[in-house]
Each structure stands twice: as C-alpha cells, then as structure tokens.
Amino acid sequence: SDHYPYSIQGIDPIQLTKQYGSPLYVYDGATIRRKAAELQYAFAGVNMKIKFACKANTNLAILRLMREIGVELDVVSPGELEMGKIAGYDASQITFTPSGVDFEEVREAVETGAIVNVDSLPLLEWFGQTYGNSKPCMIRIKPNVAAGGHTKIMTAHADSKFGISVLLLDEILEMIKKYDIKVIGLHQHTGSDIKDAEPFLKVADILLETAKHFPDLQIIDLGGGFKVSYLPGDAITDMDLLGKKISKRFRTFCEEYGRDLQLWFEPGKFLVSESGFLFVTTNVVKEDPARNFVHVDSGLNHLIRPMMYGSYHHILNISNPKGEPKHYNVVGYICETDTFATDRELPEVRQGDVLAFLNAGAYGLTMSSNYNARFRPAEVLIDNGEAKLVRRRETMEDLLRTQTGL
Ligand code: LLP
Fold first, then answer.
1. 137 assigned to active site
2. In order of start, what are the domains of the chain with their CATH numbers?
3. pLDDT tens digits, one per residue of 255-305
4. How far away, in angstroms, is 193 Cα from ligand 1 center?
5. pTM above 0.95, yes or no
C-alpha cells in the first residue's frame, strides 16, 4: 500500500525507534511467509525442499519462523548449526555447506546428524577414510559457470575457491569407489543476485548430467542466488518462469532415467532481504559547497553492503516524505569513508529525521561488527500484527565481555 513501509502491519516504525532506540533493524514476518510461499508455489510440480541459507540472517526468531513454515536450514559453521538446533531444528533438517574448514568441524556436524556438502577432494578422502559407507554425504560441484551481481559474490566460475570442479569427476568417482562413500546428493551454488533463468538452467543441466554417474542419488541442490529488487522497479528472478523451466527438465530427467530425486534450493536473500529495514536517525545535515551530507547514526558497522559491494539500498525519509527533493550523500558515523549512497535524491532531510534503508533483511546484521567500539542495533520482528524485540541493543558490557585484564 501507499503507506508501506511507513507502517508495517499497522505499526509505525518511528514509534519503534523511539521505543527500542535508533538505529533499529525491523523485519516483517508477513513478507518472509509470502516469499517462501512464492518459491513453494513456483516449484509445486516437483519434490522441492527449501533450505534457508541462514548466513543471511541468524536471528532465532526468524529461524523459528522458517521452521514453522516448513523451510529447513543451510549452515556454514558450527555456530550456525548450533543456532539452528536452538531454533528447534532437528540436525537431519540441516545441511552443512562449509568452505575449506577444519575437518574436525565436519566431524562435529556429521556426528550431530547434519548432512555435509563435501567441497574438496581431500575432504572427500577424509570422509571416506573416516566413515566409509556408514554416513551419507553430498558433494559440492563447481560447475564453472560465471554468474552473479558482483565478482565478489560469484561462486561457481573456474577461478572460484568453492566446490570440486566438475572437470575432476573421474577423480571424484574413483575416490567414492575406493572408500565406498555413500553420496546421496549433488550440490552447487552459482552466486548471488542472479536475475536470468539461463545460468540456473545451465547449472541444473550440469548437475543432472553429473547425476547420471550416481545411481543412488536422492538430491539435487541448486543453491541460492535469486535476485531481489534492491532498486525499486528493478527486474528480479522470474520465479514462475524459472520454476516451470527447471521443473520440466528435472521431471524429464527423472522419468528418462527412472530416478526419484528431490530438488533443493538454498536461498538467503530471496527469503529475507525484502522483509528487513534498517531505520536510522539523522545526526546532522552538512551543507558543504561540494555536496550535501546526511550523517546518520549508523555506518559500515551495521550495514556494510554498500561499502563492500557498491550495493544500492533504497532509502526513504519517513519523517518527511513530502519534503522538497534534494540531493545528498548519505554517510555513516564511522571514521572511514562509509558512504551509503552518493548524490541520492531524498525529500529534504532535517536533523532528527528517521531514514529507512530497504532490503536490509539479508546480510545486514549478520555482517555487522563492533568497529569503532560501537554497539550493534536491536532487532524487532513484526509478525501476526505484533512487534517483538528479538535482539536487544548491545551495551558497553557486551563490548568488554571478551577482554581480559579489566
Ligand atoms: N548457498 C550457498 C552455498 C551460499 O554460499 C550462499 C551465499 C547462498 C546459498 C545464499 O545466496 P543468496 O540466495 O543469499 O544470494 N554477502 C553477500 C552475498 C554473499 C552470499 C554468500 N553465499 C551480499 O550481501 O550480497
């Protein structure tokens, strides 16, 4: 509606920043439910499972919401695995997709009952030596396909560190045979912010082609990476089209080769990006001869995407939506050049105005830090018309907790 996001499920975010302090992360549970349903609907014709890539957002309330709506979990560390379990997941619902980790972490995950995506030949050999055929695993394939919104978030091209190159298939098969390894799934993740269906179809074909060599396979996991709309009106992944095309290939393959496969996806952004807002307050407006600067009470310590990837995050001045349009550099309070937006047109910004950063639900708080000895913000989840504090703001005590010699 017109009022969105000035009101989230009828709740005024400016009021929330007064109650819980600014800056504040706020998530709309209804959006998460809608996005999950969209994905489930698009792949209704196949046996599909969603594993939320929880590096995007590890708030326990969000993980619990995911569990409630039938979304399982993809984790990358023992810490994320533990959070999944605290949120009520059974380890069997969790996949561990590490990247070059200490094999002891893999042991921990396997022993707890999670399924591991093996991402190197040495790890595959260790897995075979350690477990033989007594534990199942999946293999992360690097398909050598370059796609993604930024070089830093492409993960499947030949030069990428992730996975075992599909060109090493003979070596993979040899290792499996040698140790009688029980491979139940093939995995790949192409990258983030992928709009077109074409790269997804390409990697699906590569994995299905590879699957012919694995007669006992149960799972094809195509990873995440669906593009969301950071810029309003920006084209996003057409999920219905993608669903139709991939489902068709998938079903044809299963029929042709007499297989009964599950199709898995691991989206992060698609499920939570749009649901999240970072609300910040304007500390000072500096009218410099070169630029107008809006300095807000946040910075790269809370939302690093603009500085790290040059990502666009749409900004609204929700305190003065009808103000006269002006151009600003929106910057943080960190002693670095932490520019959120350059030469951005906003309704006139005044000291004390609350600004909303959109699409802050994925890789926002999870990528935050305590740089400059600043506190991480609180988080609020609005679900079923009710706002709940789901993480308190940090305090000085939190900053000092790990220091010795106080
Ligand atoms: N699966 C694997 C193995 C991944 O590495 C990732 C993301 C995902 C799934 C989820 O991708 P998504 O659907 O969220 O695009 N911090 C960057 C994104 C890097 C994601 C790393 N891996 C950003 O803020 O753009």
1. no
2. 13-26+275-400 (2.40.37.10), 43-268 (3.20.20.10)
3. 999 999 999 999 999 999 999 999 999 999 999 999 999 999 999 999 999
4. 9
5. yes
